[in-house]
Every structure is written in structure tokens, then in C-alpha cells.
Amino acid sequence: MRKRKLKHDDDSFEDQFNDYFHNKIANSGDGNADDADADDGNPNDGNPGSGNADDADDRYAHAYDDDAPTSTRMRRFRDEDDPAPRSRGRMTEEARARLVQEREDVVIADGPPTGYRWTTWDDAGAHGPEPYPDWLVTNLGAVDTEFGVLKTGKEADVFLIERGVPDTGESCLLASKRYRSGDHRLFHRDAGYLEGRRSRKSREGRAVANRTDFGRNLIAQQWAIAEFAALGELWSGGVPVPYPVQHLGTELLMEFIGTPDGAAAPRLAQLRPEPVQLADLWHQLQEALVLLGRRGYTHGDLSAYNLLVNGDELILIDLPQLVDIVANPQGPEFLRRDTKRVSEWFLARGLDPEVADADRLADAVLEEAGVV
Asked: What is the 3-state composition of the chain as percent helix, strand, coil, each rounded to the nearest 5?
């Protein structure tokens, strides 16, 4: 679509626009301004070249009238001999596929010299709590390199990412958690956990309720957003969780828990700790759950598979379904289920039942949360 090019000076845009139309009419036809009104013998034909100044004024008056027909408003951008748009409405599948391919070609052409993408730090999305940790690379010249899958689950897969600036030695390891979309997602009781996360837009709400592809993608984004927000709040409150680096769509980037050479920390379920270490891990778990309770939460799906042991330190992971034990009527029930399930693992490993008391732990958390 061709637009008029008007120079910018002290005159207002509307004055320039008005002058342009009158000059156009005055110089149309055979170039005789006196004959402009009789250009084709019909002073009311309404064409830009008809020489009808009154008609031009009328069209100009409607140029910014939102109630005027679209064709009337569009004339200010298109001459009579300009071709009209050839199609309206949605793109065809062929056109959509061509557009996707063109975008992919641009991305490939603008790709980094190494790795699989430039850093996403400057992309639209949320960043973790400030001040940022010293180990985190925020340089916009950094490149992300993927080293494979760390963990697969029902809701998401976790990949190992190195974010580093080429030729500088500046780098850090990140865990990239990517929630699945489409038909591959199988969220664990997602209907219950999504309660209270309703969209204000009726179209999005229907899509989520009907579990369409669009709705499932929205659910994936909601879970990623929920976990990112939970990690940020808990990390700031001193709870032992990974630092949330960045949230972007259905991808959540967070601190990698493991060794500098990329070996992930084992899950608690994989370990057979000695009695002294077993008691210490239970003590750390108590402190972590009490800190959660202080902020009014319980994990919501706690087990030995959602706890990492990095050296001798216990780390809580997988927190998208964090449950508010104060506002949620079922909160205390979720809490007691968490403490029961994890205490059973410690009891099976030989911890004294007087120590690994699930009910006593749940009561301590509820008391910290102010729920009596």
C-alpha cells in the first residue's frame, strides 16, 4: 500500500494533508485548474481525479472518522488505479508455512558463530530477583549451547545449557525447563492445580477448559509463569531452591544444580545415605518446609524425587503447583500428604520414627503459617 510522503516543517500534518489534496485536484486532468470541476463532465463522480474540490473536502473530512466506511477512510492511502488488497481474513496454510520458513531462514542467517542460539537475556520476558548472582552471565554477546537432556517428566523436560561469551572464558551452566505443548502434555491433576488461575479473556478461558491446542499452550505458559514466580519468591525468602534466571514463554531458565563439569546433583530417591547424613537431610527438610510455611505455602507434590542433594545440601525442585495452605481450603490436606509421603522414604531408610514424624512436622508448618 503506497502512502503519501509529506515533508515535516512548521505546518501541522493536517494542514499539509489538506494542501496536498487541493494541489492534487488543481493539477489533475489537463493541468488547467479552471477546468478542474469539469474534468469529465460529472462534478459529483467522487473520483480523486474528477476535479471536484467539494468531494475532496468531504473525503478528507471522513479520513479520520472511525464511523466512516473502511473504503472511504482507506482512500487517503490508495489512488484509484492502485490495486486493492487481493485477500482478506486469515492466511492460507501455504502462506503461513512460507512465512514460518522465511522467519526460520532469517534466524539461521543471523545465528551465532557457535552454539544453537544467542543469549535470550534481552528477549521479552521476566528476569530473576535482583541483585543478580555473581555467577550469572548477563552479557548480551553470550551464546547458549545445549548439552542434552538432564531429566524428562510428565509435564516438562529439563536440558543442560551453557551460556558463555565466546573467547572470554565467561560462562555459566543453566537448567532449561521446557513445558510441553500440544498433545504431548500430561499435567498431573492440572484441573485441580489450575484452580484460581483463570484467564480474564473468555476466549482463553474456553480454550483452557476445552483443552484445545491453543488452550494447552496457555496452560504450559501458566505453569511456567507459576513456577518462575514461586522460585523467585522462595529464593528471596531463603528457601533452598534453584535461582530462577529467566522466564520466556513455556521455557524456564534456572540455576543448574550440580558440578561445574555438568554432572547433575542426584535426587534424594537415588541415594542410600548413612545414618548421620540421613538425620541431617531430615533436619534440612524440616527447616525448608517451615520456611515454606512461613510464607504460607506447601510444596503440593513433595516426594524424594522432587528433592536434590547437592553435596550435603538439600534443594527443593519442581514447584509449579505450590499450594497456599492459608487461602486454599484443601491446603492443610496437601501439606499432610507432602509430609507423609517424604517421611515414609526416610523411615524406609532407617530413620527413627520419633524423628521422622510426619504429623508433628505438618503441625509445625501450620503453626508457622498461622493456621491453627
From this structure: 40, 15, 45
Across the chain, how many H-helices and E-strands are there? Answer: 10, 11
Nearest-angstrom CA–CA distance, 8 and 14: 11
User: Which pTM does this prediction carry?
Assistant: 0.65
Q: Among residues 150, 181, 324, 167, which one has the least CA distance to residue 253? A: 150
Q: What is the pLDDT along the chain (372 residues), one digit of tens a residue?
A: 444 444 444 455 556 656 665 565 555 544 444 444 444 444 444 444 444 545 555 555 555 555 555 555 444 455 556 555 555 566 787 887 788 777 766 655 567 777 779 999 998 788 999 999 999 999 999 999 999 999 988 788 999 999 999 999 999 999 999 988 643 344 444 444 444 444 445 654 564 455 555 556 666 678 889 999 999 999 999 999 999 999 998 899 999 999 999 999 999 999 999 999 999 999 999 999 999 999 999 999 999 999 999 999 999 999 988 999 999 999 999 999 999 999 999 999 999 999 999 999 999 999 999 987
Q: Which domains does the chain have, with CATH numbers?
A: 13-74 (no CATH), 96-255 (3.30.200.20), 268-369 (1.10.510.10)
- Are 41 and 25 in contact, with CB atoms under 8 Å apart? no
Q: What are the angstrom distances between the C-alpha of 283 and each of 261, 334, 336?
A: 29, 21, 17
Q: How far is CA 21 from the centre of its chain?
A: 47
d(CA 149, CA 168): 26
